[in-house]
TrEMBL record:
The lineage of its organism: Bacteria, Pseudomonadati, Bacteroidota, Flavobacteriia, Flavobacteriales. It catalyses: (6S)-5-formyl-5,6,7,8-tetrahydrofolate + ATP = (6R)-5,10-methenyltetrahydrofolate + ADP + phosphate. The keyword Magnesium applies. ATP binds at residues 3-7, 131-139. Its EC number is 6.3.3.2. Belongs to the 5-formyltetrahydrofolate cyclo-ligase family. SUPFAM superfamilies: NagB/RpiA/CoA transferase-like. This is 5-formyltetrahydrofolate cyclo-ligase. One of its GO terms (molecular function) is ATP binding. InterPro entries: FTHF_cligase, FTHF_cligase-like_sf, NagB/RpiA_transferase-like. It comes from Flagellimonas pelagia.
Amino acid sequence: MLKHELRKKYKDLRAEINLTQASDFSLILANHVLQIPIWDFFYFHIFLSIEDKNEVDTLPLITLLQGRDKHVIVPKMTGSTSMDNYLLTDSTTLKKNSWGIPEPVDGFLVPENKIEVVFVPLLAFDSKGNRVGYGKGFYDTFLHKCKKETIKIGLSFFPAENDLISDVHENDVRLDYCITPEKVYAF
């Protein structure tokens, strides 16, 4: 399928999930993260969820990471496809941007080369680890700035798309893992 078709399909599927289901699935996803061999790393980048888009709630995962003394880094959009990355601390002030994404107002900047694990937002993914996001290119741009060995993990309420995404671009960055309520995919 084409990315624009998958965006529509998965936005519609996500809209069918109620708040209780989304909350339950998000907790399951956070627990599934324990199965992935990432616990020797210290710098974890994670997106902050857009409530209006019924995204995976990353708060349980953030709580898990902080409880294991990991450095949690969150993004702030700074240009048409770029973002800065800030250490999330108890004193970090968050404010929603024009897309409804909570972002740090200020704080401690963390360079991309420090980041070891990235939890990547997505709408859909396929069995090869290709993902479909919202189409703005923020995460592909960001991931190209990270070290090659940075581990990329998707979070999804839904299983892998049966058909491969047919319009994958050479600049698209594949996932290493994707976590769903039923399964952890390794690519």
